[in-house]
Write a structure and sequence with these properties.
alpha/beta; 17 strands; about 15% strand; 7-stranded mixed β-sheet; about 525 residues; about 40% helix; single chain; 2-enoyl-CoA Hydratase, Chain A, domain 1; 8-stranded mixed β-sheet
């Protein structure tokens, strides 16, 4: 065979590999409203930057006549590319080849690109669209999954790991995304579950659809498995590009910083008026966030889950920061099981990747009730406390209004190594609200007053007395628990200055194999 023939053979083989399972399968993929594995990569990375590896890998199975069915690449595309000039490692499962099912060779390709990501300190992005384990390969397929899981675990907290679920993801396949930092799902075309509707029906008798069992909406709003809910795949791929603008390449680097055109001394007069006169009246804390951050840009994580707490990324004078904020417009901003879990994981992610944390506090306490207690609110609330107390990144806290009881301690208080703790003049920092405090302190006196009007006046007077004494930031400030009481409209300036000062902060935890967070 001549040199030219060998080159032609290479070109032909590349063309064959790029067709995956063939034209018919590609058309079938498009008919379901899904992109192909290669089309997804093209949208994700900078144009012309993708370098593919292991294009010629094939499976090695001889069971059930599989030796007669071989496709170059074996159902997963792996390689490196750049996003805004920064290197990323990628694997994209190809549903057109054996339904994207995982073989030993398929798993080996994923493991190889994950190992490379760890070596070079680059984010790993996994695009999932797979029917699960390749049954014809038996236990070697299961071993392949476990090899991937182990690498997910080792990479955790070292490099950012992002999972896009753009099709089926069931059985053992769900655990790799679950071990990663962020999961996104597309409406109507993706689902995740450990056991499918048929097995559920057989074992439990429950009749449930695929969408209701493990669809994108379910995982974005009920289980909290999905961090982002997408209308289509293109939105998700562009969202990954946006997400990476806030994240460092790895745990040894600082998050990216850009030159900001938003003045740090920009005053927001609206913040002086945003807190309602009545302490029981809600407002949207996202209005506060948008007013503080650069150009009102805020990338919210878990938008549809545990809405009583807000988590997400923003820039402050071009610096990446993570924001955690109680949301008074949903369940009064109370902390419950879901909110505690959501915020704890976000805080731990930020700490792992050197992203400073801004906490905006307006919390009346933990949600009472038997369902919360039986569900382990004690343990779940402790997760958030643990996350803040363990975090060594710069932490700035601003108390906007309520900060009551144990929830005050949990929300990045000075005692949990909050570096700079500010409060607005509207802050109410106390063991509990005035009404509850009066019931505890003056319960006997109140019940002894028989006249209804006289009793109401007594209670009102005592509540006002309590508010004057405790429902303000000044007692905490007098003890040094609050570093300064600031005018709301100056919040952006004060917070940016605080983070600039904290840039050289060094905080170290005691030497240990690892902590034992209350799981």
């Amino acid at each position: 065979m001549s040199k030219q023939d060998k080159i032609k053979e290479l070109i032909d083989l590349r063309g064959q590999a790029k067709l995956g399972g063939g034209i018919d399968k590609i058309e079938s993929q498009h008919s379901k409203g899904k992109l192909t594995a290669r089309e997804r990569i093209e949208i994700l990375v900078d144009e012309g930057s993708f370098e593919e590896y292991d294009m010629f890998v094939t499976h090695r199975s001889t069971n059930f006549g599989m030796e007669k069915k071989k496709y170059l690449g074996d159902g997963v595309i792996t390689g490196t590319g750049t996003i805004d000039g920064r290197v990323v490692c990628i694997y994209s499962q190809d549903f057109t080849v054996f339904g994207g099912s995982l073989s030993e060779a398929f798993a080996g390709k994923i493991c190889k690109i994950m190992d490379l990501a760890m070596k070079i300190g680059a984010p790993i992005i996994g695009i999932n669209d797979s029917g699960g384990a390749r049954i014809q390969e038996g236990v070697t397929s299961l071993a392949g999954y476990a090899d991937i899981f182990q690498r997910n675990i080792m990479a955790s907290g070292v490099i950012p790991q992002i999972s896009a679920i753009f099709g089926p993801c069931a059985g053992g396949a769900v655990y790799s995304p679950a071990l990663t930092d962020f999961i996104m799902m597309t409406e109507n075309t993706s689902y995740m579950f450990v056991t499918g509707p048929k097995v559920v029906k057989t074992v439990t008798g429950e009749d449930i659809s695929t969408e209701d069992l493990g669809g994108a909406n379910v995982h974005a709003s009920k289980s909290g498995v999905a961090h982002f809910l997408l209308e289509d795949e293109e939105e998700g791929l562009l969202l990954i590009r946006k997400l990476l603008t806030y994240l460092p390449q790895n745990n040894l680097e600082e998050p990216p910083s850009i030159d900001s055109t938003d003045p740090i001394d920009r005053r927001e007069d609206s913040l002086n008026e945003i807190i309602p006169e009545s302490s029981n009246q809600p407002y949207d804390v996202k209005d506060v966030i948008h007013a503080i951050v650069d150009h009102a840009e805020f990338m919210e994580i878990h938008r549809n889950y545990a809405k009583n707490i807000i988590c997400g990324f923003a820039k402050l004078d071009g610096m990446s920061i993570g924001i955690v904020a109680n949301q008074p417009s949903f369940l009064a901003g109370v902390l419950d099981i879901d909110a505690s879990r959501k915020a704890a994981r976000f805080v731990r992610f930020c700490d792992a990747f050197n992203i400073p944390i801004l906490t905006l506090v307006d919390v009346p306490g933990f949600l009472p009730g038997s369902s919360q207690e039986y569900g382990g609110i004690i343990i779940h609330g402790a997760k958030l406390m643990f996350a803040y107390g363990e975090a060594t990144v710069p932490k700035v806290t601003v108390t906007l209004r309520k900060s009551y009881g144990g929830a005050h301690d949990v929300m990045s208080s000075k005692q949990l190594r909050g570096d700079v703790n500010y409060a607005w003049p509207t802050a109410e920092i106390a063991v509990m609200g005035a009404q509850g405090a009066v019931e505890v302190l003056y319960g006997r006196e109140v019940s002894a007053i028989e006249d209804k009007e006289e009793r109401a006046k007594f209670v009102a007077d005592k509540e006002n007395e309590y508010k004057e004494k405790f429902a303000n930031p000044y007692q905490a400030a007098s003890l040094g628990y609050i570093d300064d009481v600031i005018e709301p409209r100056n919040t952006r300036f004060r917070v940016i200055r605080a983070f600039e000062m904290l840039h050289t902060k060094k905080d170290v935890n005691p030497p240990k194999k690892h902590s034992n967070i209350p799981l």
